Amino acid sequence: MARAYPLDRVRNFGIIAHIDAGKTTTSERVLFYTGMSHKIGEVHDGETTTDWMEQERERGITITAAAVSCTWAPTYEEDQVDKKKRFSFNIIDTPGHIDFTVEVKRSLRVLDGAVVVFDGVAGVEPQSETNWRYADEGKVPRICFINKLDRTGASFERSFQSIINRLTKDAVRANLPIGEEENHEGVVDLLTRKAVYFEGVLGKDVRFSDEIPEAMKADVEKYRGELIEKIVQEDEAMMNAYLEGNEPSVAELKQALRKGVINNTIVPVFAGSALKNKGVQLVLDAVVDYLPSPLDVPPVKGINPKTEDEIERHASDEEPFCALAFKLQTDPFVGALTFFRVYSGTIKAGSYIYNSTTGEKERLGRIVRLQADKREEIEEVYAGEIAAAVGLKDARTSHTFSDEQNPIILEQIVFPEPVVSMRIEPKTKADQEKLGLALRKLADEDPTFRVSSDDETMETIIAGMGELHLDILVDRMKREFNVEANTGRPQVAYRETIQKEAEANHKYVKQTGGKGQYGHVVLKIKPLEPVDAEAKVKNNVTREDHFEFINNIKGGAIPGEYIPAVEKGVREAMERGIVAGYKMEDISVDLVDGSYHDVDSSEIAFKLAALNAFKEAAQRANPVLLEPVMKVEVVMPEQFMGDITGSLTSKRGTIESMEDRGMAKAVHSMVPLSEMFGYTTQLRSMTEGRGSMTMEFDHYAVVPPNVAEEIKSSRS
Fold this sequence. Notes:
Blueprint (H helix, E strand, L loop, with lengths): L9 E8 L5 H11 L20 H6 L6 E7 L14 E7 L7 H10 L2 E7 L6 H12 L4 E6 L8 H11 L4 E3 L1 E4 L7 E4 L4 E6 L5 E5 L7 H16 L3 H8 L6 H13 L4 E5 L8 H11 L9 E4 L6 E4 L8 E10 L3 E10 L2 E2 L3 E4 L4 E4 L2 E6 L2 E5 L1 E2 L4 E5 L9 E3 L6 E2 L9 E7 L5 H14 L4 E4 L6 E5 L2 H15 L3 E3 L3 E2 L2 E3 L4 E9 L6 E11 L13 E4 L2 E5 L11 H14 L10 E9 L7 H18 L3 E13 L4 H10 L3 E8 L2 E9 L6 H8 L5 E11 L2 H11 L1
Parallel strand pairs: 1-3, 1-4, 4-5, 5-11, 6-11, 34-35
Antiparallel strand pairs: 2-3, 7-8, 8-9, 9-10, 12-13, 12-24, 14-15, 14-23, 15-22, 16-21, 17-18, 17-23, 19-20, 19-22, 25-27, 25-28, 25-29, 26-27, 30-36, 31-32, 32-35, 33-34, 36-38, 36-39, 37-38
Helix pairs in contact: 3-4, 12-13
């Protein structure tokens, strides 16, 4: 089967936003206008296509990133049906709730561009900032859509200024709304100076008019001038011509604007209301005109596992096959799905797929392309495309698939550590095995969901990014695996660390008649600056999980065969903690000396010597408890401001700033996570149901001594 669309007519992009900015509604309009769905699903009706899990439809939020393939012909093309005029879109609709940010992070890794949706009343919100930061890290080109301009209190200009002030100075207005709130009728396209109206059934018919409303003409000329001045900076010859009074043509301006978007030096901002069917088609035109094709982004880099040299793969069907698995999902009808993005080469259904991360290969039975909850089987996937493999057993998120003769391992996706945990047990003993299987499958799908067991109580512990995250996973166990479970109260994922250097010398000696036990180590420990999780292993220094182990043994004081046992003993001690039994981190451990016995030394003796030496050193190193601190934003009517700020400070919170948010007020603060459980309910009662809150992890901080004592008492 030949490639359906050439690479320059392919667009891989995500739709990202803060929760409730209207992102899923925008996605539904996209599917409707591109012909993928024959009716529009609404979030409030629980009928959306991209929200296909039962919990998503019930809760009205997007939990998993739904991948959808569709095609689009720009509105300015006269022949909308001609396939040669159409573009192939692979769209990922990502969640806006903070507990599911991992979906945004992994989606952005495999996308070439993004449409960022904002609420026209609220403007930039906390999750908008987090998502923007992730897109900055990945150098993902963006266009913006200020949505919900039909709502009371909506303001395109205020929302635009919030983008300028809080996200990027490179934002420019690409169009202006014709009217706002109940008077929102359409938009004016600044480059073409045309008024655009969306008519017919559900705004499907786009009408361009040369008649701009009289009251808008001055603003159109003013902001068009600003737009052109920003665009011509992308091309020196164009800028010189413009300064001499020669305005470039619309086609030339579009070409330069495309260059600016791809280089991340310009972010065009569009206006509209997805719910009222206004403006979405122009955003799709902008995806075609300004977001990159796979040919416009740099080649993907990776490591040759045989030589450890850095190598590249270009977007070409002719290059060796290379793809990245970015998501695992269990589908109720077809089983395990592995979503992957192909960077180079092609692969056919029925062939073998080589996993260069594990060095194993398995048969690729079926490949499907996704229309959210519908599956279209395909024979072959080409460079630049996104698809899902059915039934792969050993693939995991971040694994690289490649040509076996030309292997490459791409950089792994790094995920945040969980901050909330809870105990879980099946409601009936008979379900113990089913519970274990369900938890394993869910952990395979979601890298921020962790399952462990408490060595002392033998209870199962689950950990995730927030209460909602764990609630939904427990709910999924019931629906998808038919396992009902009892859960404990959510617990904070505390950590421990040290604050100064210390040394310990421990000799483990045991004589029991026969062969004895002998291990002797001298350890120096010191606080370590938090390290990037992507740091690589270098020489004899291991740096990962906020831990550094340095082997400084000289002259064979401890034989090399026992060094791994020393590191293992240190790691075990760090897992157990010494303040309140929580995992320790950000510590450098230097093995400086020791001794051994020809007959009595063993791995277990050195492991126990190291474990005890570390505990002794850590006790002298001013150990402290760390707690996750959350960035909290509360939005409420002004009359509740005093109550809210008082309640946040009473929870050991610090107020960072306050601002107007349409007709409401927003308070930004930093509050320890342990104080925030159940706060949504309190907020509802304090504001008569009119307040809302968003919360995301910001950093770990030292727990005050009085609070640390309470935590220790509750653990003992």
